[in-house]
Design a protein that fits this description.
Helix content is 58%, strand content 0%. The chain has one domain: Hypothetical protein af1432 (Orthogonal Bundle), CATH 1.10.3210.50. The model has no long low-confidence stretch (mean pLDDT 93).
C-alpha cells in the first residue's frame, strides 16, 4: 500500500468506528485535528505518515468513553494497523502518540519537547481544537452531554487539579476554561501551534468578557 492508501484506509476505519461518538470527539473532531496536524507539519521535520495516522487514530477510543480504560485506544489502533502492510516501527510510533497525547496525563507539565516531534505536532493539533470558536462549542456540548451547569458564580475554578480530580470534576463549563482551555496556549510545542493558539486564546478571552457582561446585565 502507498502512504496515501494507508491514510485513506485509516480514514474509513475511523469514520466507521466513531459513528456514534459524542460530537466533541467524533470523526469531524478527528478530521480537524488531522488538518491542523498537516498544517503544522509543513514547518517541522516529521514523518508525515506517523503524524497522519497518529492524528487520525488519537481519539479512536477515548478513555472517558470507555470507563477510564486507557488501554483500549492503543489496542484498537494496533489491531487495525497490523491488518495493513505497515512497518512495526511505524505502528510503535503511532501507538506512542495515542498513549501520550492526553491533557490529563500531562497536567503540571509545561510542554513535551523531550517527546518525539510527531507527538508534539499531533498534540498541538488536538489542543488547537479545544481553543477558539470550535473550542467553545465543544466545551458547552460536552458540558451538556454531562448535564453540567453553564456557569455558577459560587463555584470557583479548581486550579490545583490532579489527574483524578480532573477526570471526576463536575464543575460548570465556564470553569473548564480556567481549568484547561486558557492553560493550553503556554503548553504548545511548535512555533506554528503557538501562533494559532495565541489568536484562538484571545477569542476565548473576548467570549468570557461578553459572557460576564451578559450574565450581569451590563450590556
Ligand atoms: P484530553 O482527552 O486531552 O485529556 P479532554 O478529553 O478532557 O482532554 O478534553 C477534550 C475536550 O473535551 C476539551 O477540550 C473540551 O472541549 C471537552 N471537555 C472535557 N472536559 C470538559 C469539561 N469538564 N467541561 C467542558 N468541556 C470539557
Ligand atoms: Ni482529540
Amino acid at each position: 500500500m502507498t502512504n496515501t492508501e494507508l491514510v485513506e484506509a485509516t480514514i474509513d476505519f475511523v469514520k466507521e468506528t466513531l459513528l456514534d461518538a459524542e460530537a466533541g470527539h467524533d470523526w469531524f473532531h478527528t478530521q480537524r485535528v488531522f488538518k491542523n496536524a498537516l498544517l503544522i507539519s509543513k514547518d517541522e521535520k516529521v514523518d508525515v505518515l506517523v503524524v497522519s495516522l497518529g492524528a487520525l487514530l488519537h481519539d479512536i477510543a477515548d478513555s472517558k468513553f470507555h470507563k477510564g480504560d486507557e488501554t483500549v485506544g492503543p489496542r484498537l489502533a494496533r489491531e487495525f494497523l497490523s491488518s495493513l502492510e505497515i512497518e512495526e516501527k511505524t505502528i510503535e510510533q503511532v501507538c506512542y502518540i495515542i498513549e501520550h497525547i492526553s491533557f490529563k496525563n500531562n497536567i503540571g507539565k509545561k510542554n513535551n519537547t523531550r517527546h518525539p516531534l510527531e507527538l508534539q505536532v499531533v498534540q498541538d493539533a488536538d489542543r488547537l481544537d479545544a481553543l477558539g470558536a470550535i473550542g467553545i462549542a465543544r466545551a458547552f456540548h460536552y458540558g451538556g452531554f454531562k448535564n453540567r451547569k453553564l456557569y455558577d458564580p459560587d463555584i470557583p475554578p479548581n486550579l490545583n487539579m490532579n489527574k483524578s480530580t480532573y477526570k471526576n470534576s463536575e464543575s460548570p463549563t465556564i470553569n473548564h476554561f480556567y481549568e484547561k482551555l486558557l492553560l493550553l496556549k503556554d503548553k504548545m510545542n511548535t512555533e506554528t501551534g503557538k501562533r494559532i493558539a495565541a489568536q484562538r486564546h484571545d477569542f476565548l478571552l473576548n467570549f468570557l468578557e461578553q459572557f460576564y457582561a451578559e450574565w450581569n446585565g451590563d450590556r
